[in-house]
Amino acid sequence: MTKELLSCVEINPTTKPVASIIWLHGLGADGHDFAGIVPELNLAKELAIRFVFPHAPVKPITINAGFPMRAWYDILGLDRHSHEDGTGIRESQKLVDALIENEKSKGMPAHKIIIAGFSQGGAMALHTGLRHHERLGGILALSCYLPLNKTLLKEAAPENNDIPIFMAHGKQDNIVPLNFGEYSEKVLREHGYKVEFKTYPMAHEVCVEEIVDISNWFKKIIS
Fold it and tell me: Rounded distance, CA 63 to CA 81, Å?
């Protein structure tokens, strides 16, 4: 595994953390993008969660005429059947695995580490979480899809066969269409995963109702 560790925005509780949430941003954003959601989650101080918001590497993106931006992997097309950047996805998988190991080195057990993400970050959360060699606490996948789904069966880690998965998607999403998320949920269910999937009257964004549901899901799986 790579020893490289991404720089991150960290929000630590006032007491010893009992859980860690590694939250991956979307294409072109950075670790600050979702840091502001923490107070909106209204989580009790007793939960003592450490939030880790990493900055993805900067790389050229094909659909943006090769313009470099923070990204977990290249996007070669906008169609669900477009060729995927498998090499880039697996490189970022190693980066996320390194963040998990870093949390463990601080004393956090793997089963108390949740991988979350929005858009491209949500895709990476699904890809990495389902393949991780130790049981994790959960996967939160917002406005995204399941990448490299054809290799999941042979690469999935049995330790995470029953991992809690919460997926959310906007009904008016014009960046990652709703049917991407619905198809991903279908594939996951066919592979035996238990998925909680919710839709909201929004575009490629996060809404108040969704934040409430995310908060309740965190409380359920961390307590």
Answer: 15
The answer to whether 31 and 19 have CB atoms below 8 angstroms apart is no
- Global confidence as pTM: 0.96
Establish whether 83 is a catalytic residue. no
Distance of CA 73 to CAs 28, 34, 63, 150, 207, Å?
A: 11, 19, 12, 18, 26
Catalytic choice (20, 30, 92, 119): 119
Are 48 and 15 in contact by the 8 Å Cβ rule? The answer is: yes
204 is catalytic: yes
| Domain extent listing, the chain | 8-222
Annotated active-site residue in 55, 204, 213, 215: 204
Q: What is the H or E stretch that residue 197 is in?
A: strand 195-200
Render pLDDT for 65-90 as a digit per residue (tens, 0 to 9): 999 999 999 999 877 677 999 999 99
Query: Is position 173 annotated as part of the catalytic site?
Result: yes
Q: Provide the CATH number for the domain formed by 8-222 in this structure.
A: 3.40.50.1820
